[in-house]
Amino acid sequence: xxxxSWYMTSPGxxxxxxxxxxxxxxxxxxxxxxxxxxxGPILGETGTSPQEYSFxxxxxxxxxxxxxxKQRWIxxxxxxxxxxxxxxxxxxxxxxxCSQSLTYSSFLAGRILMAxxxxxxxxxxxxxxxxxxxxxxxxxxxxxxxxxxGAGTALAPFLASLxxxxxxxxxxxxxxxxxxxxxxxxxxxCLPDEVPDSELKSQSHPFLLISLSAGAFTVLWVLQxxxxxFYSNLLILCIIAITGLSALYYFFSSMVRFNGVPLLMVKELxxxxxxxxxxxxxxxxxxxxxxxxxxxxxxxxGGMGYSWNSIGTxxxxxxxxxxxxxxxxxxxxxxxPGAKKFFVAGFLSLAIYAGLMSELAPDASLIGNILPxxxxxxxxIMMVMATTAMQTFREVQHNETVFSHANQxxxxxxxxxxxxxxxxxxxxxxxxxxxxxxxLNTFITPYNPAYRETLAKVSQVYANSVGTSQANxxxxxxxxxxxxxxxxxxxxxxxxxxxxxxxxxxxxxxxxQKMMR
Length: 517
What we know:
By secondary structure, this protein is mainly α.
């Protein structure tokens, strides 16, 4: 949509635009990270069952996908300033509803409002970089975008853990309202309100949008429900998933055949090999983010017994390496822009992170053993995602509309991939926990000398404060808890062995490929 006459030339407005790009990226990553990290306490405070929470996740992702797909269409009719202002206002209303929620229904309504308002923050921030004139200033826009991504990702667990530890989980949404208010002021002072000529505007069709909505929700719902019905209703879930995928196929194939300017320029984008490789890499990264958002709290809190406060603090410290890496990359890129070294180093960091986590023992130190691994996870996130972002859109920046649609499709894929990562982690952990628990249970028998000895020692400890019979029951409960924690740890290590192999294989592929040099 940007033309040369719309480039932002005022130095003051350029600085405000850089701040707006940073804040929009920051708030999106912050809200996603905080809500994911604090999902357990939120479930308890709102009386929401795991299945109801899964429906909330699917609903949020579905609404987000619809709003992302319509972003360009709306901006072409309202201008950036009005669009972002209204989006932030709706996002704040949704955050306020969530902060006051005491029931599942009100929390669901709040999250849907947050999705309507905030789903396109990330896409909008990246497209706004092109409001800057073609010059080194464009790289400053990319730097602001990447810094917001790293800062939001790193701070989310820490801020969420503080709110949860102080029994004020609603503070998560109060923080978001505060950041959104600052963003509203910044955006209102710098964003343009021009719109393109009518013949240049994207076109939409209600039936196709219904197809996208139904397909997206169906697939996401199946992904979430598979956490609970994977084994009992596999055939039904597969049939529903195929129906949803068929609706999505109909939508995208219709976009290819669409006459005029379609809602999304799928034909031009899907024929671009570099772009499609980039989408695959982005999808893998978001899958890893979704998987780790579930896996790390499970391992550290459920398996190793660390407090939410400790996990959130050191998880944030580990992810802060993403910011350090970006500072280094921003210095190297102008002189040595080749992508291969960053991809290889990024996926090797993923392998090192998984390798260190796969060697954890039950008595591992949070600072000495786990923190170094989390630092490598932050390196992977920034090095691969930032490099992918710069490579993926290189051949689609010639047209502002194509560039916007490219970012929209990328972020729609991100919603799917994050949900898929959470589902893979949940189903996989259920499977591996059950397997390891059954094996460990074979050792819980009176014929096992180690079991008898442990039971006697623990009973003796409890007997100092309670009766003998109650002490035996408490000792049995303690042993059962230990077995459960061991099963969680072993299941997590199975995941990390798999991630380790994936990191090494992809690093090798990146080392020998020629496309993204």
